């Protein structure tokens, strides 16, 4: 996701659009080993948990865990599938830069990788989260269109003062989304598929609420960035996500201006409830 703490231009060594060269040959053997460790951990967990689109994307990109992918090689496959490419950035980039990349089917990915002592948690997205987590879904044409539209919508939301609402949509779909399939609930969110703990927690733990996706409802719900989610929203299909978001958000934002936020763990009478969570986990981990 993006950060808004930058007021001036890109740091030294970045292009004006904040991209850098990935410089693949500079990764050390230890850095490649971190990728392989994380890759093997996640691919052992994800069959039967991640959605088919994700698993198929992972195959199609040939990210077979030999080490940190070379973006140039990966981009040849990705571009042929959906027109997307991955560009390297030093870390989080300003919102408008992020949205502009998405609107042009470029996904900004951190090029650094976490240290071996940070396998389970780190604060800024690294190449494992950004590439393993996000890029497989970008091979799906519907999701790929959604992400492009989201970039365009981001610039508009900024101009309307509704970025906080739109950011919640990103959070509860792109990062932490679940979907309903004939085989049961499946993960498509990048924040989940790139996390060992949350890959199990999101689907199997009795603590979080799991509620049907509703656009306005989601945009009224705050989220937490510091721990597992207290609520996950379940899509009926990726097509539904694209269809719901292709509408003009002008009236949606107007409606949001009149409606209060919904407390993070609340369930409303309109919600379709997949799981009424105990919130036991959140209750035991108060910040
Ligand atoms: N349709 C939205 C608008 O009019 C843009 C958007 C598309 C937002 C896809 C999010 C996802 O602002
Ligand atoms: Fe992310």
Q: How would you explain this protein's 3D organization?
A:
- By secondary structure, the protein is an alpha/beta fold.
- It contains 13 helices and seven strands.
- It has helices spanning 29-45, 52-61, 71-82, 95-103, 127-134, 141-160, 163-175, 190-193, 196-204, 215-219, 238-246, 249-258, 280-284; strands at residues 85-89, 106-110, 178-181, 184-187, 209-212, 231-235, 273-275.
- The strands form two sheets. It has a five-stranded mixed sheet with strand order 4-3-6-5-7. A two-stranded parallel ribbon has the order 1-2.
- The longest helix is centred in the middle third of the chain and has 20 residues, at 141-160.
- The chain binds phenylalanine and fe (iii) ion.
- Residues 146, 149-150, 152-153, 156, 169, 245-249 line the site of phenylalanine.
Order of strands in the sheet with most strands: 4-3-6-5-7
The profile of the biggest β sheet is: 5 strands, mixed
Order of helices and strands: HHHEHEHHHEEHHEHEHHEH
Helix content: 40-55%
Low-confidence stretches: none
- Report the oligomer: single chain
Structural category = alpha/beta
Beta content comes to 5-15%
Cofactors, ions and other ligands in the entry: phenylalanine, fe (iii) ion
What is the β-strand count? 7
Radius of gyration: 18 Å
Individual helix count: 13
Terminal residue distance: 22 Å
Question: What is the residue-averaged pLDDT?
Answer: 95
- Shape designation: globular
